[in-house]
């Protein structure tokens, strides 16, 4: 049963579905370890988002939906760590460019997740989301700036 719920969470995040938060709560209630939730659901979901960006199947709305879904999951997972503190240095997001290039950076960044566990995974994904948000927000601001009248 937990394999199905993990797969459902991965799909919910990759597709930007609001039920990601409830699925995460259900997995925690089922006593699925946080590391397993990351490794079997959230990492594959974000890899899928990155692949979708590279293949130009995902545009800004799909990426923003996935970000909201993973943020909702992270909020639940953060609650499982009372007063957590990082034990290692969390990498910062590096890379930018067109959306398909950012997808490649996302895949590479998420590929480093295996180096982390526990609360460090939460912090790692927070850094990932912050970096991704910064990158997808830039073109939106550039476009908005180009449409303003002088």
Describe what is shown at a glance.
This protein has 150 residues and is mainly α. It has helices spanning 2-14, 20-29, 34-54, 60-78, 99-110, 119-147.
Describe the overall structure:
By secondary structure, this protein is an all-alpha fold. The chain has one domain: Methyltransferase, Methionine Synthase (B12-binding Domains), Chain A, domain 1 (Orthogonal Bundle), CATH 1.10.1240.10. The chain has 6 helices and no strands. The protein has helices spanning 2-14, 20-29, 34-54, 60-78, 99-110, 119-147. Helix 3 runs antiparallel to helix 5 and helix 5 (99-110) runs antiparallel to helix 6 (119-147). The radius of gyration is 16 Å and the shape is globular. It starts with a helix and ends with a helix.
Tell me the layout of helices and strands.
Elements: H1 2-14, H2 20-29, H3 34-54, H4 60-78, H5 99-110, H6 119-147
Helix content: 55-70%
Q: What is the top-level CATH class?
A: Mainly Alpha
The CATH topology name reads Methyltransferase, Methionine Synthase (B12-binding Domains), Chain A, domain 1
- Element-level helix/strand string: HHHHHH
Please name the defining characteristics of this protein.
6 helices
């Amino acid at each position: 049963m937990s394999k199905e719920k993990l797969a459902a969470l991965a799909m919910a995040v990759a597709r930007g579905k609001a039920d990601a938060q409830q699925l995460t709560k259900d997995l925690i209630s089922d006593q699925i370890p946080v590391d397993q939730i990351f490794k079997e659901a959230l990492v594959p979901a974000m890899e899928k988002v990155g692949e979708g960006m590279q293949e130009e199947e995902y545009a800004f709305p799909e990426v923003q939906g996935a970000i909201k879904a993973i943020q909702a999951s992270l909020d639940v997972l953060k609650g499982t760590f009372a007063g957590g503190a990082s034990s290692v240095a969390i990498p910062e997001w590096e890379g930018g460019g067109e959306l398909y290039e950012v997808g490649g950076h996302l895949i590479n960044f998420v590929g480093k997740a295996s180096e982390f566990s526990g609360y460090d995974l939460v912090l790692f994904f927070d850094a990932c989301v912050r970096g991704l948000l910064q990158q997808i927000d830039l073109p939106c601001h550039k476009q908005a700036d180009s449409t303003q009248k002088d």
